[in-house]
Specification:
The complex is a heterodimer.
Chain A: E1 2-11, H1 14-31, H2 35-54, E2 59-67, E3 72-79, H3 87-91, H4 104-110, E4 114-120, E5 124-132
Antiparallel strand pairs in A: 1-2, 2-3, 3-5, 4-5
Helix pairs in contact in A: 1-2, 2-4
Chain B: E1 6-9, E2 12-16, H1 23-40, E3 44-48, H2 57-72, E4 76-80, H3 84-93, E5 101-103, H4 106-118
Parallel strand pairs in B: 2-3, 3-4, 4-5
Antiparallel strand pairs in B: 1-2
Helix pairs in contact in B: 1-2
Chain lengths: ~130, ~120
């Protein structure tokens, strides 16, 4: 599998979440994703970008275009925040430590083909999602 | 400061969301709308989201909050014009927007508000 393009977007302010949506939308359009698939990955990116900003205290998103044998888009959200003590619990619908609906992490997982969370308490969190065309 | 305009038409308030909303803008709309309902004694709120290419859990919660707050202030809220791809994504995300009345377009939404108004 080859990464053909990669770029990193900072996530330090609220408008950055909007930028992430726009950048991911543009890329999925260019890659020829269906409208529904575009909307799913943009929505997942919005949820995760907000998590990085609010719970992670800011960080960045790396966007990679994958090519061969399949075309896909991989997004990595990384922060150096407090980490998630119990990932299983955090993935459960309705669970939140903030003021949200608790749908962000579990909801984002349902909207993509591949999902992984790597979190260390006191060090940070990395969430990787991939959607194949 | 950036704001989403709220139009008054008789006893209805109309909002068309045409920008990709960041979270604070969504919160401002929520505050502004409740304020306007109380000032104008509006009986209905129509929110057109046909330009929105995405509704995530935050925007979904904002819509649900507006519907709940306006109900407490004796006004009905109808959300109209949701794009099909947005609807599919919302349900998969886990958000089915309980408590929010929806209509396919502005005409149908107005009809819904008028008929519920007559029932009062």
């Amino acid at each position: 599998m080859a990464t053909v393009a990669s770029e990193t977007v900072p996530l330090t302010t609220e408008p950055d979440v909007v930028s992430v949506r726009r950048i991911v939308r543009e890329k999925t359009t260019k890659l020829g994703f269906s409208l529904v698939d575009q909307t799913k990955i943009v929505t997942a990116a919005s949820e995760l970008a907000r998590n990085t900003l609010i719970y992670g205290g800011g960080g960045a998103m790396r966007m990679e275009t994958l090519n061969g044998p399949r075309v896909g888009l991989r997004l990595t959200f990384e922060d150096n925040g407090p980490g998630i003590p119990n990932i299983e619990l955090a993935l459960r619908d309705g669970f939140t430590t903030g003021s949200g609906l608790g749908l962000g992490l579990g909801g984002a997982k349902r909207l993509v083909n591949e999902f992984s969370v790597d979190s260390r308490v006191g060090e940070g969190t990395k969430v990787v999602i991939t959607r194949w065309k | 400061m950036e704001k989403i305009p709220i139009l008054r038409m008789g006893d209805l308030l109309l909002v068309t969301i045409q920008v990709d909303m960041h979270d604070r803008l969504a919160m401002t709309l929520q505050d502004d709308l409740t304020q306007r309902i109380s000032e104008t004694s509006a009986r209905g709120v129509l929110i057109d989201i046909s330009s929105l290419e995405m509704v995530d859990s935050f925007i979904g919660r904002m819509l649900a909050n507006i519907a709940a707050m306006s109900r407490v202030l004796d006004a009905e809220t109808v959300v109209v014009g949701m794009q099909p791809a947005v609807a599919i994504t919302l349900v998969e995300l886990g958000l089915s927007l309980p408590g929010i009345r929806t209509a396919l377009n502005v005409d149908a939404g107005m009809e819904l508000l008028r008929s519920s108004g007559n029932g009062n």
